[in-house]
Amino acid sequence: MRLANLSGRLVIVSGSKASDVEALSIGRFSSDPQAIYGEWDEFTTWARTADLTAGVPFDHHDLLAPVPRPRQIFAVGLNYQEHASEVGLVASKVPIVFTKFVSSITGPRADVPHPGGDVDWEVELVVVIGKTARNVSESDAWEHVAGLTVGQDISERITQHEGATPQFSLGKSFPGFSPMGPWLVTPDEFSDPRDIALETIVNGATRQRGRTSDMVASVATLITAMSKILELLPGDIIFTGTPSGVGLGMKPPQFLSVGDELVSRIEGIGEMRNRIVAVA
């Protein structure tokens, strides 16, 4: 199943058509794309038998972030060995976790304002939590996942590394620095959700290409590690780390400029297209 946020309303996407959830369920479920994660089991039971034949075509430019207002955003650093190596660091067996702030979320076709400095790309698989997770074992971790989507952990490197200790959360939370989309795809849609390809393309040139099976800490490991410390809540999201090929790791380093097109793709989910624009 594919769930999308179409102009602020929750829809089920089937092929090239979208079905409005509130209308289709005759008001049983809200049109609010964020609210559905609080009743995920009830919703998915209903959705499996929903009649989607009356869906209507839609414009991809009307798609917004499928999870627009999570209570918690987690992000994982240095979760691919080759990425750690390209920036001169060592991947840690203990997940390096930070946060991105909710105000940085934007959609899969949104413009991203360039705040100045060294703005870098980081394509990431984003995991959406569908069931409260606390002290979850790795064998049960995927039972708590509602779905997967494409994300970019856009980073302004000067702010990120400014100060006595790195400012990861601030450097990665400028407006528009957390685009997500184009929709959420439930795990059952994948032959193996633990091994899918992801890539970043900048102005037509491939910059990143990797597979999620190369993660140092898998999705299940991340959920287990985090849930030992805190509750993962329905609708929370986890940016799971980026493969090698970021601008900081290039020789010489290369960064995004106003006018650049940033394309982010993940196998089995789809792509985002974000234009870098001047700050208004």
From TrEMBL:
Membrane-crossing residue ranges in chain numbering: none
Gene Ontology biological process: carboxylic acid metabolic process
InterPro entries for the chain: FAH, Fumarylacetoacetase-like_C, Fumarylacetoacetase_C_sf
Domain of life (superkingdom): Bacteria
GO molecular function: hydrolase activity; isomerase activity; metal ion binding
UniProt entry keywords in alphabetical sequence: Hydrolase, Metal-binding
Domain Fumarylacetoacetase-like C-terminal: 73-277
Lipoprotein as UniProt keyword: no
Keyword Transmembrane: no
Family under the similarity heading: Belongs to the FAH family.
PANTHER family with a match to the protein in the record: FUMARYLACETOACETATE HYDROLASE DOMAIN-CONTAINING PROTEIN 2A, FUMARYLACETOACETATE HYDROLASE DOMAIN-CONTAINING PROTEIN 2A-RELATED
Protein name: Fumarylacetoacetate hydrolase family protein
